[in-house]
Amino acid sequence: MSQPDQPPPWMKYVLLAAGGYNLVWGAAAILAPAAMLAWLQVESTQPALVFWQCIGMLVAVYGFGYLIAASDPYRHWPLVLVGLIGKILGPIGFLFALSAGTLPSSFGWLNLTNDLIWWTPFVMILWGAVRHLHMIDNAYELPEADDPIRELRTHDGRRLDDLASDRPQLIVFLRHAGCTFCREAAQDLGAQRSEIEAAGCGIVLVHVGQEDDPEFFSKYGLDDLPRISDPSCRLYRQFGLEIGTFSQLFGARVWARGIIAGIFGGHGLGLTRANSFQMPGIYLYHCGQILDGFQHEHASDRPLYTEFVRRNLAPVDVAVAR
Question: Do the beta carbons of residue 267 and residue 180 sit within 8 Å?
């Protein structure tokens, strides 16, 4: 299992490069404003020279910020965010000025080197920081010896191993209650519950909420099922479920399915109530053993619960008969 993500080395070098670039550019604008304006084909009036030197000071200040952020990109992500906002607003302002005829097209080269080339690495740094924030202070920092399967209890005080000793249990790891796909999964389970139980399998729900939410589960006819609240994602981690990547959580496929499930399926979209980056999954667990599992490749995947149970319980039934 992975430990909390640490910034890869390239992030440090990108921020060092950005800081160095800004300091050099700022120094040039302060010390030689007339030469820079002449290269940009702008008349070097006294107000323009003073204004350009002020811009140079601001750019240099950003440079110091990037150098500080380079020491720990994830910890100092606000500095990167402020820098990215500036690098997005710069080209927007240039386009407005160009359309109004107040700036020559030669200014576009500044947007390329000052702003556009930094968009991708800065966005990647921010995404890494957001993902890191969803991994700290939870199970992904705990040692491998952590054993929540024997420690966590259901809302009515039972252990998972005790439930699975009587009959196989379909353990359904859900996302947060505000998630469109979590609501869809709850509806699917409610509709397929009788068939799953008729196949000789119980159902245990695991969710990332801080507290149990009987009203949510009651809506789908699942309020009497055993449920485990796992806000630290300890059980998720033990079963091999990870924090999602960008494509797993926000890719085009996820958006398309979200529109279908949220609008046409009537599941809507609620507020984030817990770790929204945790990936879901389902497992068949019996007598201390995982018989099979399904890990979502995308948050929008829709398992066929009844088919999964029947396919995996058939070998168990044969073994018992023998």
Answer: yes
Cα gap 5→237, rounded to integer Å: 14
Angle subtended by helix axes 117-133 and 9-31, to nearest 10: 130
The pLDDT tens digits of the residues spanning 15-34 come to: 999 999 999 999 999 999 99
pLDDT in tens, 101-112: 877 888 888 889
How many helices (H) does the chain have, and how many strands (E)? 13, 5
pTM, to two decimals: 0.80
Res 315: pLDDT: 56
In angstroms, how far is CA 269 from the centroid of its own chain?
Answer: 16
In this structure, are residues 196 and 203 in contact, taking their beta carbons and an 8 Å threshold? yes
Q: Where are the domains of the chain?
A: 9-133, 148-321
- How many Cα atoms within 13 Å fall on the side-chain side of residue 13? 3
59 and 29 Cβ atoms separated by less than 8 Å: yes
Hey, which CATH number is domain 148-321, 3.10.150.10, 2.40.110.10, 3.30.420.10, 3.40.30.10?
3.40.30.10
